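Sample intake sheet
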Amino acid sequence: MKVAIYGRVFKKENAIFIQQLYDYLHKTDTEFITEEVFLAQCVASGIKPRLTATFTTHQDLDNNEIDFMIVLGGDGTILDTMIYMYNKPIPVLGINTGRLGFLAGDSKNDVKKCIDNLIKGHYTIDYRSVLQLETSTPLFDKVNFALNDFVIHKKDSSSMITIHTYVNGEYLNSYWSDGLIISTPTGSTGYSLSCGGPILYPTVSSVVITPIAPHNLNVRPMVISDEYILSFEIEGRSTSFLITLDARSESITTNVQLAIKKAKFKFPLIRFNEENYLNTLRQKLMWGQDNRNT
């Protein structure tokens, strides 16, 4: 078994758990390779990862025949791994050192248990749908994919913008709003939820169209099939707008043509056999925090 390790900036108190991960990988004779910037942070924090090769691009991972990617952080850190996934998706295990943790659901206190489960094959893989953005101008360094959502947002003005939206070429609506979110089922518990969108079960073949602060009070989020192609025309007092794929953003003008469709690949997320999405949903959103349920 060979794993890739990825993370971002971490708190000092998490260094002990990262050290435990490296020590246990070494103890179990598991080969590993670490993202270059994260490794430098580890060394600067006093972590001793022993000998490890490094990677910086998806080609590095392809050349090393990686079986799993272990991500240390929160959900945002997992979203970052999309830049490594589009060519050859690698099953991702998220170990939560962040806050909410819908995707990075495994506790940093269970590092050894996580590695044992991988070695023994005690896991399943949830394949999550991915959005693909098509534009008339190359953007996002051609890594034009999102696991959570695609967002159009106003940029240089406090005035609302108008987003004319089409489904398979047919006019749907003109959203007078601060922006528009196109969310996957995975992203339905993120930005879309905070703007009043519904929660979708991860395996549902749908996307959610959620306006951000719409001026038309009768406009509501809409769920459509992920087999459809969405296209957009943007108007506003400013000629510059912001679009995002998960946490990555680009500035565009009204001349850029935009279309969103389902990508041909899916994002493989590791789930251990004792885990359950509905349990995670209740815990993370604190459903049932009522004395009547005890």
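Comment: The mean pLDDT is 90. The first strand starts at residue 2 and ends at 7.
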